[in-house]
Design goal:
Helix 1 packs antiparallel against helix 5. The termini are close together. This protein is an alpha+beta fold. The protein contains 11 helices and 10 strands. The protein is elongated, with a radius of gyration of 24 Å. A hairpin with a 2-residue loop joins strand 1 and strand 2. The strands form 3 sheets. The protein has a 6-stranded mixed β-sheet, sandwiched between helices. It has a two-stranded antiparallel sheet with strand order 1-2.
Length: 367
């Protein structure tokens, strides 16, 4: 992976943190143990039989003898901070975690320093969550991702559309007042890594009382429920099925593909508008992926209704409304990818096309 953070920026970070204990109120072992497996990383000590792992190594040199310099972590190849942007960003964000640093004024000052230094290479540290009112941070590329915290994740309706109203417009809190039994509502906080299939199956097991069932059965149950929300739409079903095969091959830590995700569907608002006009243009996404660093990927499957009228004639107005909605989503930080319905009807060629798309998408967001 190519590093965007230059050696100049890394030196500035190291010099700027010279008077700051990077491990905060913890010690070095406690801090690094939060996101590294110190018992499997090797020692650097020649007396490896006495100090066989990184844990014993660090205890010996940072706690027992204090014979390592304070900035040793930035040069230790085991932790990758010298040549891996993701590792460095995760390390810097963890320095601000409430479990690591309790003084909010210090957190704010350190946060400002990190962002002033990283900005030159196109990165920033942003708040992604909160614990007891105290911010939790993650690193991301500047301009990437969707600002704000995820709320109102309503998806996979397998019956009448959910009727949704705002209960608090300032905080964008909504309530499903009708047809809630036909949709799924993910009500857990979104982690920094986004929403994985493992996260979703864990929620589903709790939601359905399946916590004692084997993980494979829980996963199958959830897939059947998501599939049911697609009705008779074979093109969208092919997208979901192709992606589900990735869970089998790659494991359940890959992002979950959510079908039929509702942004807004408020019949009370609709009642005050001209029949046929959408008061809130984008009401539903065909599919949504929630990736790390607040990256949101929307996948749309376009049937004839997206560009033609009821008689099948080309409808320039309908098409213009669709691309305007896409622009709005992109300006808000979403990535939008469209498939024409005709792309998804030719059997094995479609499967290869979708597999190649998801491979390239994964490659794009893993660098």
């Amino acid at each position: 992976m190519t590093s965007r953070i230059t050696d100049v920026t890394r030196r500035r970070l190291i010099e700027g943190l010279a008077t700051t204990a990077w491990y905060g109120v913890l010690n070095e072992v406690e801090f690094l143990g939060r996101f590294y497996d110190l018992d499997t990383l090797p020692t650097t000590d020649s007396r490896s039989t006495q100090f066989p792992t990184a844990r014993e190594d660090i205890i010996q040199h940072c706690i027992a003898n204090l014979d390592w310099p304070d900035d040793w972590i930035f040069y230790d190849e085991r932790f990758g901070l010298a040549d891996n942007d993701d590792a460095l960003l995760r390390f810097l964000a963890e320095m601000l975690h409430p479990a690591v640093r309790t003084n909010l004024a210090e957190v704010e000052q350190l946060h400002d320093f990190l962002n002033q230094t990283l900005v030159h290479d196109g990165y920033e540290i942003v708040q992604i969550d909160a614990i007891s009112g105290t911010p939790v941070f993650a690193g991301r590329r500047i301009g990437a991702g969707v600002p704000g915290s995820m709320k109102n994740l309503i998806f996979a309706a397998d019956g009448p559309k959910p009727e949704i109203v705002f209960t608090d417009a300032l905080n964008n809190d909504v309530l499903v007042i009708k047809n809630e039994q036909f949709c799924l509502i993910y009500d857990r906080p979104l982690a920094a890594h986004g929403l994985t299939w493992a996260d979703l199956t864990s929620w589903w097991a709790e939601h359905e009382g399946l916590t004692a069932e084997p993980a494979r059965e829980v996963s199958r149950s959830l897939y059947r429920r998501l599939d049911r929300s697609l009705g008779d739409n074979d093109a969208e079903r092919r997208i979901l099925r192709t992606y589900a095969e990735r869970y089998v091959r790659l494991g359940d830590d890959i992002p979950a593909l959510l079908p039929q995700v509702y942004l807004h569907y408020d019949p009370y608002t609709r009642a005050h508008h001209v029949p046929g006009a959408a008061p809130l243009p984008r009401q539903r996404m065909d599919f949504l992926l929630l990736l790390p660093h607040r990256i949101r990927v929307v996948i749309e499957c376009d049937g004839r209704q997206h560009y033609a009228d009821e008689a099948g004639r080309a409808d320039s107005q309908r098409y213009a409304e669709m691309v305007a909605e896409d622009r709005e989503l992109r300006l808000r930080g979403y990535e939008v990818y469209r498939f024409g319905g005709a792309e998804l009807i030719d059997g094995s060629a479609t499967d290869k096309r979708l597999a190649a798309f998801f491979d390239r998408l994964a490659e794009r967001y893993s660098t």
